Amino acid sequence: MIGEFFKLLLCVPLIFIAYKTYSIYAIRKKYSHIPGPKTKGILGFYLGNLSEALRYIRGGRLLADMMLDMCNDYGRVFKFQIVDKIVVFTIEPEAVKEVLINQNFPKVPEIYKQVGFPYNERYLGNGLLSDTDFGSWQKRRVLFNHGFQRNILLNSIDELNSKIDMLMMRLRSLADGKTRINLLKEISHAALDIIANIAFSMQVDTINDPSNELNHYVYESLKGFYRQTFEPFLAYNPGEWKWLRSYKIIIRKLRDIGKRHIMKRLLYLQNDNYVPDDILTNLLKNHEDEKFNVDNMVDDFLTFFVAGQETTANTLAFCMLEIGRNPHVFDKLKNEIDSVLGSKSFINNDDLAKLTYTNCVYKETLRLWPPIPEIARISNKDLNLNGYHIPTGSWIEVSTYVSGRFEQYFENPHVFEPERFKYDITNQKINNYTYFPFSLGARNCIGQNLAKLVGRILIAKFVQNFEIILDPAQNFGVIQEATLRPADGTQCFLLPRKN
Ligand code: HEM
């Protein structure tokens, strides 16, 4: 009897291996008509191109660089295999349009569940970024769209100017030419304050007090999210269970900050009014039963910080890195900003319209360094991409990073050349489907107008105020976690340009 039981037990892994072998064989056959890198040997059959991907990562390069090399080798539509998944990748402009706009294919639930509910803890939950159900997402997106329109955001241009002035004052206090400054960190504090202020009328001063609890918990929660993405077996390691518990507590505390803030706003209480915990808890309970769901609102509260802070700050840190290593770009910026603004410190919409080169510098930064380099969708119908049949249920990936560095789309793609964006409407050189750092279609970035306003005002004020000297000891590498960021955070020394 026991012998039979062990025989049965031995059969389980064999059945599993047979099942996996057949399913990988079937999926490879399904996509065999699409070109792509070959896999090597028996291990390659099971792991696909995982070893190539790991080689890139270990060599300090990005997965997006691997895709770029593959595009050059296999064409603008190709496939690659990672374990039992086959991903179809394309940079063909018409295919990008088809996937993101015409077909509006849904997001891949497996990817977004990780940020929605890591380790079964509600983090961004079903917020705008992570909600993969089109119907429920669309209802909320319609509500939020209005507040993120450019003309509505311009009502907050005073607040934007004043937050960025606070950052300039802080940087001035460090601008002695000797103090090493991590610009990414400083800008990221300002980005948090701006999102809190513009999106939620919340007054926090992370620029001068980075130890505030909102900043602390957003930062720590993101660190945990990276760990779960890049260490898939972490939850199975008992040595990490203590960390896992503390990570869950951080998420709960962050959600609690959101919940309390939302309830205070709903109850028309002033931000600085102290509400005892027990009273607020009771009020929260009463409101849970009403027509709105506080948890969904907290999902979006967190989503705006998580989706907006890093992306905004990383872009600007890359921008300063490029300005620092391209003195001719810095000189041109100074000319434009000095002639448009002079010593004027308040930047309004008319000024922004005149800062055309500054705008090109911002765009060029996003061409080379898009914080979200790749986007994946899942096809819900058969389609034809560039002559290849793509079956229903395929993962399709597009990448502004790869398109932005593809020689046939951009001349001298590795050169930082803002002028390439200087075209008029009759001479449009850049194809919209080869440059899309804010994504395209229904699920594009809702915060892009805010990001662009903050970006251009911040660059203009920075150039007005400082000379930048990059720390020569700096590692110019790039890190890809949830977003792309400069590995060393843009380490530099600043000198004031004027008093
Ligand atoms: C330079 C700055 C930014 C870049 C490059 C950027 C880029 C993107 C991209 C590529 C997406 C699509 C992601 C996907 O399909 O998976 C996205 C979505 C999103 N972004 Fe941004 N973003 C930036 C700033 C912001 C800001 C400032 C906010 C808000 C304060 C924000 C909020 C969001 C939200 C909520 C979504 C999800 C939208 C939806 O699906 O309805 N982003 N962003």
UniProtKB/TrEMBL annotation:
Binding sites annotated in the UniProt record for heme: 445
Keyword terms, alphabetized: Heme, Iron, Metal-binding, Monooxygenase, Oxidoreductase
Keyword Oxidoreductase: yes
GO BP term, pick one: cholesterol catabolic process
InterPro entries: CYP46A1, Cyt_P450, Cyt_P450_CS, Cyt_P450_E_grp-I, Cyt_P450_sf
MF annotations from Gene Ontology: cholesterol 24-hydroxylase activity; heme binding; iron ion binding
CDD domains per record: CYP46A1-like (cd20613)
Cofactor: heme
Claim: Heme is one of the keywords in the record: yes
Family, similarity comment: Belongs to the cytochrome P450 family.
PANTHER family from the UniProt entry: CYP46A1 PROTEIN-RELATED, CYTOCHROME P450 FAMILY 46 SUBFAMILY A
Protein name: Cytochrome p450 10235
Natural source organism: Brachionus plicatilis (Marine rotifer)
